[in-house]
Amino acid sequence: MSRIILISFFIALISNFAAAQTDTNNPHTVLWKVYHPQNQDTSYLFGVNHNFTGAYLDRFPIIKEKLLSSYAVLNEFDLLHIKQEGSSLKFEDSLLWFHYVTKKQRRRIMNFFVDHHYMESFINTLDIYNLHSIFNTIVGFYYAKTLESKKGEEQLEYYCARLAKDNNIITAGLENMEEHFGNMHQIYSYTPVPVVAEMKQSATLLDSLINIYQKKPESYVPDFADWMKDYYHLNFSYDFKTTPSLDDLTNKNIMERNQRWLPELTLLFENHPAFIIVGVSHLCYTWGIISLLREKGYIVEPVKMD
């Protein structure tokens, strides 16, 4: 009898240890509390999925509560300034997307983005890879609405920035618009020539996707739909002990941006309670912002969402 009890005890112990390890990587939250033992100020990291709307905050009032109690709110880039001032971004002429499409494709692609409130002058400054990124943002935004019980009309980060401004909280960005889109462009700048064939193929694919989406937008499911569902249900892992290969240029780009932002974040945390909004992928892995802050001596704890 005692052997059975002892075995049961060890099974329970192992199960609890495994659960603890799982919870460490998947704490079912997108909000993290940040503070330093030598500082009284408490800041927060909010890991977002860029496709969701402001309605996401209605599911988790704790996020809005912590945002409104902050001294400053920082997004990846200054959304309010861009909305008002636009951008002076300009890639090399040979890289601009419209050189790689027919007149018919150019008209259809341009009309799509203009219909979704992007200025023609801005779209004409982009390469095809940035254009694909914006397309994914648009279709992901509308797909997110099928997951949200309450429908929001403003993109999540912009909603947070406007909410902060309306409540006289400082808003800013960790980088400007040129740096932001330049980062995405940099991912592809490592790609060896021939670029022309690749860009033509990518432009044709974008035109095809737009055509499919426009025929039946309500039933269009983006290829990243499963990730969006996992984010919505807080069912994903931060993989703090994993170091993904930097041969993947997206991983390399995220890691470099995290390292570039870190000095600004630590300086801010030393002086004011801040609320930082970044894509949730910036918080994951050994080179994520959470791991980097912990290496600097900061305590970073998950916040319960309910």
Structure description:
The protein is of the alpha/beta class and 306 residues long. Helix content is 53%, strand content 11%. The chain has helices spanning 2-25, 56-59, 61-68, 79-85, 103-115, 120-123, 128-147, 156-166, 177-189, 195-215, 225-232, 249-271, 289-295; strands spanning 31-35, 43-48, 72-77, 170-175, 274-279, 299-302. Strands 4-3-5-2-1-6 form a 6-stranded mixed β-sheet, with helices on both faces. Helix 5 (103-115) packs across helix 10 (195-215), helix 7 packs parallel to helix 10 and helix 9 packs antiparallel against helix 12 (249-271). The radius of gyration is 22 Å and the shape is globular. 26% of the residues are buried.
Number of strands: 6
Q: What is the domain total for the residues? A: 1
Largest sheet: 6 strands, mixed
Spatial arrangement of strands, main beta sheet:
4-3-5-2-1-6
Class computed from helices, strands and strand pairing: alpha/beta
The residue-averaged pLDDT reads 84
Question: How large a portion of the residues is in β-strands, by DSSP E?
Answer: 5-15%
Which term fits the overall shape?
globular
Tell me the radius of gyration. 22 Å
Work out the helix count. 13
Through-space gap between termini: 42 Å
Low-confidence stretches: 1-23
The helicity comes to 40-55%
List the secondary-structure elements in sequence, H or E: HEEHHEHHHHHEHHHHEHE
At a glance:
This protein is of the alpha/beta class.
List the helices and strands and how they pair.
Elements: H1 2-25, E1 31-35, E2 43-48, H2 56-59, H3 61-68, E3 72-77, H4 79-85, H5 103-115, H6 120-123, H7 128-147, H8 156-166, E4 170-175, H9 177-189, H10 195-215, H11 225-232, H12 249-271, E5 274-279, H13 289-295, E6 299-302
Parallel strand pairs: 2-5, 3-4, 3-5
Antiparallel strand pairs: 1-2, 1-6
